[in-house]
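Recap from last week: sequence in, structure out.
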Amino acid sequence: MKRFLFRILLFALIIVACDLAVGFIGDFLSLNARGETGRRVYIGNGAKEDVLLFGSSRMEHHYDTKILEDSLGMSVFNCGFDGIGIICSYGLFKLTTQHSWPKVVVLDFNPETDYLNKSDIKHALDNLLYFHGNPVVDSIFMNLDERANYKLLSKMYCFNSHFVALLLDNIHPLKNDINGYSPEDLEMLFEPGPFKEEGECDSLKLYYLERLIKDCRNNTTLIFTVSPWYRISDDKVLDPIKKLCRQYKIPLISHYNDSSFIYKKEYFSDMNHLNRRGATIYSKVVAGEIKKVINDELSEAQ
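Predicted structure tokens:
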């Protein structure tokens, strides 16, 4: 019996030691990574640019930071990531504001990831696992999963889905960016089938949208934008966000069904994303609109 208990104890100690080793290696790789991991760590540890851009892949691929910087006369960093939604964006925003407050926050609103209940929230939040132990991050996970406080004790749980990416971003990053902006160089050569955004309202996503709005109030200028989709002609899906913007007096710049873009395949890499050519044109347009909003708010403040 004693031998059996000793083996159980030894096995438990080995598991704990392996878990700690994974955590040590994961933390080391994270701090020394470039590419996507390096960008994520930079944001979480306090991006200090004047203008921070948040959102999913459409933010990451549609907003050329250099064009925005030239137009606005302010430093800009793109904090968008593939597949994330408002909950993860809010977590990244809170991490940055623990260090300093940006002058302007722009959120590119995506109905699927920021309002409707279609996307996998827990998968999207993998981006925040790097920052486990931070009270802001842990509270978000607890809000989604009551057992998260136990899961987050394990370093293996926090790094298991990222180890390959961590290694690659230390050896040879697969993805490079320009102040967070990652352009798409493909051109859509096919005609996609019909598409319509449908789904039910996700109350948790709405909750974090409102948290972002309230946190920015009196601290920073918050602007919502919606970039173009290919062949989208009906923007009724945006009615809830329009209502929210009217309620809280948040500027909304929408090109969701902009005829200048939505029928031009040469501007898109796929139905959801602008390519480099389309992003360049769109960034020039939206930069002027963002600048106007900022100038209008400054005039009102005076």
